[in-house]
Amino acid sequence: MEKMQLRQEELDIVKQWVATGDVEVHKEVITENRTIVVPVTREELVIKNGDEVIRIPICEERVEVVKHPTVLEDVSIYRQQYETVHHVEETLRKEELHMETRGNAQVKQEI
């Protein structure tokens, strides 16, 4: 008795992650010089005695600059995955058994 194996091809689909690009996100600090006009008040004690005037500074406003950060805007940065469909077309082969008889050969089929 001889045995013959009949074979057919089947598809195995393998997916793998491949880097298609790179993104670098960073903040850039931009500097800007500003000139602001601030009125400053001062107070003096004035003494008049005839034609003579004496001025004595008592107090004055001093300008103090305080910087504080404020939120300009919120920026969301995240990765998002989405799925598309890729159509794969491939030709598969399959073996089938065929018999040819010559002469008076009779084939009996057993189940």
Estimated share of beta-strand residues: 15-25%
Q: What low-confidence regions span 5 or more consecutive residues with pLDDT below 50? A: none
**Distance linking N and C termini:** 16 Å
Mean pLDDT: 92
Biggest pleated-sheet summary: 2 strands, antiparallel
Q: In oligomeric terms, what are we looking at?
A: single chain
Helix content: under 10%
Helical region count?
Answer: 0
Structural class by secondary-structure content = mainly beta
H/E order of the elements? EE
Order the strands across the largest sheet as they lie in space: 1-2
Shape, per Cα inertia axes: rod-shaped
Number of strands: 2
Radius of gyration using CA atoms only: 47 Å
Would you mind describing this structure in some detail?
This protein is mainly beta and 111 residues long. The protein is 0% helix and 15% strand. It contains no helices and two strands. It has strands spanning 42-49, 52-60. Strands 1-2 form a two-stranded antiparallel sheet. A hairpin with a 2-residue loop joins strand 1 (42-49) and strand 2. The two termini are 16 Å apart. The mean pLDDT is 92.
Which key phrases capture this entry?
111 residues, mainly beta, two-stranded antiparallel ribbon, 0% helix, YsnF/AvaK domain-containing protein, Stress_Response_Assoc, DUF2382
Give the helix/strand layout.
Blueprint (H helix, E strand, L loop, with lengths): L41 E8 L2 E9 L51
Antiparallel strand pairs: 1-2
Short structural description:
This protein is mainly β. The chain is built from no helices and two strands. InterPro entries: DUF2382, Stress_Response_Assoc.
